[in-house]
What we know:
Blueprint: H1 2-22, E1 25-27, E2 30-34, E3 40-45, E4 51-53, E5 57-58, E6 61-66, E7 79-81, E8 88-89, E9 102-105, E10 111-112, E11 125-128, E12 134-135, E13 148-150, E14 157-158, E15 171-174, E16 180-181, E17 194-197, E18 203-204, E19 217-219, E20 226-227, E21 240-242, E22 249-250, E23 263-264, E24 272-273, E25 286-289, E26 295-296, E27 309-312, E28 318-319, E29 332-334, E30 341-342, E31 355-357, E32 364-365, E33 378-381, E34 387-388, E35 401-404, E36 410-411, E37 424-427, E38 433-434, E39 447-450, E40 456-457, E41 470-474, E42 489-492, H2 518-523, H3 530-539, H4 545-556, H5 558-567, H6 569-586
Parallel strand pairs: 3-6, 4-7, 6-8, 7-9, 8-10, 9-11, 10-12, 11-13, 12-14, 15-17, 16-18, 18-20, 19-21, 20-22, 21-23, 22-24, 24-26, 25-27, 28-30, 29-31, 30-32, 32-34, 33-35, 34-36, 36-38, 37-39, 38-40, 39-41, 41-42
Antiparallel strand pairs: 1-2, 2-3, 5-6
Amino acid sequence: MQRSKSLFILLFIGCLLLSSSAFALQWGDFTYTVSVNNDITITRYTGSSVSVVIPNTIDSKSVVRIWTSAFEGCNSLTSITIPSSVTSIGDYAFQSCNSLTSITIPGSVKSIGTRVFYYCSMLSSVTISNGVTSIGDSAFQLCANLTSITIPSSVTSIGYGAFNSCYRLTSITIPGSVTSIADNTFQSCNMLTNVTISNGVTSIGVSAFEDCTGLTSITIPPSVTSIGDSAFSTCFGLTSVTIPSSVTSIGAYAFDACMGLTSITIPSSVTSIGDSAFHYCTSLTSITIPSSVTSFGRYVFAVCNSLTSVTFSNGVTSIGYGAFSYCYSLTSITIPGSVTSIGDAAFLECSGLTSVTIPSSVTNIGDGAFGGCTSLTSITIPSSVTSIGGGAFSGCTSLTSITIMDGVTSIGDSAFEGCNSLTSITIPSSVTSIGGGAFQSCNSLTSAYFYGNAPSIGDDVFNYTGPDFTVYYATCSTGFTNPWYGYPTAVFETPCTITSTTTTTASTTTTVSGKPCPAQKVLGEDYSNLENLRDFRDSSLAKSTIGRKVIQIYYNNADSINEALERSPALRAVARRVLEMIAPMVGKVK
Length: 590
């Protein structure tokens, strides 16, 4: 009996709730419901008036809510008055009211829901009163005639795409009460020319101002710590940006295709720069990368074809994939001693680049790193580099001098293919493999000097070189034949250092000379400092390409020098005095 009584009471309460809140009521053109708190929610407007005033009360009950889609698609509506009794406006409430021209949102309203005024294409005037705390996602998106809006300091949150594609919006001030500018908030506001971001905002979201093509300058306040992906991408008119020292990260594509941007200062607080962050900034002329940035993403400054100056601070450890590719105006680059890796295509097609300094810290040069640098005339690969990537210098048609230091163990496929101005190449003893086509189509190349044992090679390494191309190998080298892989060979006389381990420092050296040494002939075998000259030759001169060339010339002309010394005792006496002066000194050089 007690259980039946309780069930009856619950059913009775449910009926009361249904009668007061679930059943829709009508007052004029307004459909509404009454809540358990005895207040009213407008659920639908059914009229066709051009001007509508929402009442404060209906049947002495306060109107506090405008429900989801209540006025959606009311195409005849040009103006609406919202009373100060209303505290919330639901999602889609006025969506697609295509004739609505103005709206005032009273301070009693705390939140403007998602897409509330979405695609109100004629809406030109919006007043948001102080008291509103949040503007929902896409709230004013596609309000194509909206020219200005004031966001009060009471607002703390602006949702995703809130003003996206408000094409005629010309100015906006974001108050410091807003901590984050959400993703796509002002995207495609093409006529936006004046943006004020107040101190207090800490982050600028993904695509927040993307495609704001009329924006010419932006000052980011010192409260901002991160600039999101594509935040200012395709802002074609942007010429000036101030990034404060509070910013630690610049997102991928953040300033991509800002073609009017002529200069930008990256503060020392920044530690990461995302992929393509400044890609296609075609008016950018100079950039300094602070020491706080240790690495940056792919294509960061690619196609910045007015870039003439790049300053790296010591701190960057790697230069990313395609980082400066197609920077046609870049003429010289000095890579700091902190860099260990030059990524694939890092300077690809930098056709104006005439000189590059690669420090001894670099261990790897990636595929295509300097491919197509048609103005590059000389390059030195330091001994710290162990591998030269495929196509690393392919198509460098002005390259006349390549110095590969001992330490490099592999030369990749097509590494120097098409270097048409190259006439001679010296391969150090440390190289153990050369990839296919490494020197293919170097049609001025007539000689390749190998100072070590024959490396393993790929197909067509020296195809389409000069008509008299010859492979020269040192007397002490092994593994060469005549022909060698179809290329004619010849032996050249020189002291040489053969690496017996795979490390960059030779563990065993063998000095070989096939001709009498003029110094030995002048000084005599018993001369006390003769060994100093030999040590200097083997431990210092023989370790550099230039030094080896000097030795090669010296020994190749040994017969002629000795003959001249024999004919002229006076010349021999002068040579002896010079050598006696030099020999003790070079003993101190290692």
